[in-house]
Specification:
Blueprint lengths: L22 E11 L9 E3 L2 H8 L7 H11 L2 E9 L8 E3 L11 H4 L10 E5 L9 E6 L2 H4 E3 L9 E7 L5 E8 L1 E11 L9 E5 L5 E8 L5 E8 L2 E3 L5 E5 L7 E2 L2 E2 L6 E6 L2 H16 L7 E4 L2 E8 L3 E4 L2 E8 L9 E4 L8 E4 L14 H4 L7 E8 L10 E10 L5 E2 L2 E2 L2 H8 L3 E3 L24 E4 L7
Parallel strand pairs: 1-3
Antiparallel strand pairs: 2-3, 4-5, 5-29, 6-25, 6-30, 7-24, 8-9, 8-23, 9-22, 10-14, 10-18, 11-12, 11-15, 12-13, 16-17, 19-20, 19-24, 20-22, 21-22, 25-26, 27-28
């Protein structure tokens, strides 16, 4: 290269004939079929990367249009693209009740659509097309939805819930056992004497389970019939003691064994096994209803992601179970069996599928707390469930954390009302209505959403290319 010993002017000649610049004044336009993107709206693109991001990759149905646009952007950096779509191209939707097919072309078109409680869909894909069916949305709008202990309680004190998983297994069982039956009838074996019509027969098995009955006597005070008023619930294997209280003769009957005096004896009829099966089945279905595919169960120090929730099976003698499938094998040092009536310290806690993608459970924003409201916050996750957008199934596309259901809520001066944030910021979703028990309102009138005991996770469906 040239070298100058003293100051001077150096002239260099460089060959640029091998470079084809993307001249900013080169503009073009194209309209055609694309897999994704707003319909009937002009979008200015400057590169093929933007083309794919805004309108999707080419398919067998639109490769000509796509590659014409792509070729232009290889040499120019201003291409106006307009997507055309058939009238039967519909936006995919996430629904909590029956939803109808609907085409939402773009923002202007969205503003003409009816939103709110009358809608079946809570969210719709931002653009029409079957590609929207690859999306999944998950809403966590309460601390209970974020996490809960599935072994903490049962709906009936005589029910037992048990979770079990073995080392090296990718399935576990959730079992409900109903170990009691109602006393449905008492038959008088020996009427005795000296009783009053006002006497009460008390049923007890020595525990909190008890029932009571009324008696009818004859002229000598002998018991002629017994009517069950409260049958109570008793373990199938327990011994039920029947005692008559408040009798003038003081004569009691305990489990049919007479004591001194003119005692009465009875035989007891328990409810059918079918009744116990029904109670167990109801218990298990209630507990399964609090689980969502994708939830993560913390067993010891391991998180087991639920991939399938089996239906109830094996209903017999008050026992019913369901099989839970997990994404990974359980690697604990020993098998786990945790029951609601156990003193074991091995807790089984359910966590929202995306709990580790946010800082903590949703709570109450400072803005709403200052105005007397509570539990207004929520998290929303948008994922590429089928991998059509990204090529990797389950990729998280968007995360909206600690938004508010309060229409006037602010944080550090910026609005945080979730409907507006999602509509204005999301590239994948339109808001259509509030989730159940989590309505929008002003901060002063905000009601808690803590009643929601599980997250709402929905795979979008119904998207069509037309």
């Amino acid at each position: 290269m040239a070298f100058q010993v003293s100051p001077g002017v150096n002239v260099s000649e460089i060959d640029l004939t091998t470079v084809v610049p993307a001249v900013s004044t080169t503009e073009g336009g194209i309209a055609g079929a694309f897999r994704w993107g707003p319909v009937n709206e002009r979008v200015n693109l400057s590169s093929e990367v933007e083309l794919v991001k805004s309108f999707g990759k080419p398919t067998d149905d639109n490769f000509e249009t796509f590659h014409v646009a792509s070729s232009f952007l290889a040499y120019g950096n201003q291409l106006y693209v307009v997507r055309a779509a058939d009238a039967n191209a519909y936006n995919a939707y996430a629904n909590t009740s029956a939803a109808t097919d609907l085409q939402v072309k773009n923002l202007d078109d969205y503003l003409t659509k009816t939103t709110g409680a009358a809608q079946g869909a809570i969210y719709r894909a931002k653009c029409p097309g079957s590609i929207g069916n690859s999306l999944k949305v998950s809403i966590c709008d309460s601390a209970n939805a974020y996490s809960s202990n599935i072994m903490s309680s049962v709906n009936n004190s005589n029910n037992t819930l048990t979770f079990a998983v073995s080392v090296g297994a990718n399935t576990g069982t959730l079992t409900a056992t109903q170990a009691s039956q109602n006393v449905t009838a008492i038959t008088v074996s020996a009427g005795g004497s000296g009783y009053n019509n006002t006497d009460v027969i008390v049923l007890s098995n020595g525990a909190a389970n008890s029932g009571n009955c009324t008696i009818v006597t004859n002229s000598t005070g002998g018991i002629t019939s017994v009517t069950v008023v409260g049958g109570g619930q008793f373990p199938n294997t327990s011994v039920i003691r029947v005692q008559v209280a408040n009798s003038t003769a003081g004569a009691n009957s305990t489990n049919g064994n007479t004591s001194a005096g003119a005692s009465a004896t009875f035989s007891i009829t328990l409810g059918s096994t079918a009744a116990a099966n029904t109670l167990a089945n109801t218990e298990l279905n209630t507990q399964l209803g609090l689980l969502t595919v994708g939830d993560k169960l913390k067993v010891g120090s391991q998180y087991l992601k639920v991939t399938a929730i089996g239906s109830t099976s094996g209903v017999s003698n008050g026992v019913v179970r369901s099989t839970l499938s997990f994404e990974d094998l359980y690697t604990g040092s020993a098998a786990v069996s945790k029951s609601t009536n156990s003193t074991s310290t091995e807790a089984v806690t359910r966590y929202w599928e995306f709990f580790d993608n946010v800082d903590s459970a949703p709570g109450t924003s400072a803005y709403v707390a200052e105005r007397g409201g509570s539990s207004d916050e929520l998290h929303v996750i948008v994922a590429d469930e089928d991998g059509v957008f990204t090529g990797v199934k389950g990729t998280i596309l968007e995360r909206f954390e600690r938004l508010s259901r309060a229409t006037d809520a602010k944080r550090e001066g910026a609005a945080i009302y979730y409907k507006d944030i999602i509509n204005n910021s999301s590239e994948y979703l339109w808001w259509f209505k509030d989730n159940g028990n989590a309505s929008s309102n002003t901060a002063n009138n905000m009601s808690s959403s803590d009643v929601n005991a599980k997250p709402t996770t929905k795979s979008l469906e119904g998207g069509a290319d037309g």
